[in-house]
Design brief:
Belongs to the NDUFAF7 family. It catalyses: L-arginyl-[protein] + 2 S-adenosyl-L-methionine = N(omega),N(omega)'-dimethyl-L-arginyl-[protein] + 2 S-adenosyl-L-homocysteine + 2 H(+). There is one protein chain. By secondary structure, the chain is of the alpha+beta class. The chain has a domain of about 140 residues. Helices cover about 45% and strands about 15% of the residues. The chain is built from eight helices and eight strands. The strands form two sheets. Strands 5-1-7-6-8 form a five-stranded mixed beta sheet. The chain has a three-stranded antiparallel beta sheet with strand order 3-2-4, with no helix packed on it. β2 and β3 form a beta hairpin. α1 runs antiparallel to α8 and α5 packs antiparallel against α6. The two termini are about 25 Å apart.
Length: about 220
């Protein structure tokens, strides 16, 4: 999930400098202020879908090294060492059984490791769905922030309740650019087969496809 201030497309002249929670001129005090810029969520969607499409199209799984069997050193035997004299080509008593047990144990360990890595590879390299972005205000309201505010306000002092409502308005206000409810956007990236994440019910979403389809889905409207 990505939460940041930005727009669903390029936003020109958004470079800013912030010092002590206030905006300052970018070149006033170089090195003493934080530089920031608005996020282009359209480009982020394009990159996410493009990476998923490329991973699905490649013939070699990018995580195939994780699924390759690895040799596991044999554990030292707990049995006391015994010097045995055997005829050429003969097997020492008990050695065959011990070797078979060690081989079976090693094979089981390698199979378990390979299965786990294979599942991880399938999850990370599989097709994805990109949800949103949606305004932070709408996202928080769908999560039940208004109801939570009322519960907290009932238990708070008048001063605390007023502070809670002020903070609520600041986080959810979509009526102006000063409100974080519209300035901040929320995007989620999930496996294609997953349902809509909480807070994104009814939100637009794009799914990983061929590189050409990805480019069309991520077309940015200026």
């Amino acid at each position: 999930m990505v939460v940041d201030y930005g727009r669903d497309g390029p936003y020109s002249d958004s470079l800013m400098a912030i010092k002590q929670h206030k905006g300052v001129q970018v070149l006033d005090e170089p090195g003493s202020a934080d530089l920031s810029a608005w996020v282009d969520f359209g480009a982020l969607r394009h990159a996410s879908l493009g990476a998923a499409a490329a991973a699905a199209a490649t013939s070699r799984n990018p995580l195939s090294d994780l699924t390759a069997p690895r040799a596991t050193p044999a554990a030292p035997s707990a049995q006391p060492k015994t010097i045995l004299t055997t005829l050429p080509g003969a097997t020492a008593p008990g050695a065959a059984g011990q070797d078979a047990a060690a081989t079976a144990e090693q094979a089981a360990a390698e199979a378990a490791a390979g299965a786990g890595a294979g599942a991880a590879a399938k999850t990370l390299a599989g097709p994805v769905a990109v949800w949103g972005p949606v305004p932070q205000g709408s996202f928080l309201l769908q999560l039940g922030m208004a109801q939570r505010l009322e519960v907290l306000a009932q238990r708070a002092s008048p001063e605390q309740a007023a502070a809670l409502r002020t903070g609520f308005e600041r986080l959810t206000d979509e009526g102006s650019d000063k409100g974080m409810g519209r300035t901040y956007q929320v995007m989620a990236i999930t496996p294609k087969s997953a349902p809509a994440p909480a807070g994104f019910e009814g939100a637009k979403h794009a799914e990983g496809a061929s590189p050409l389809a990805v480019a069309k889905q991520a077309d940015i409207q200026l």
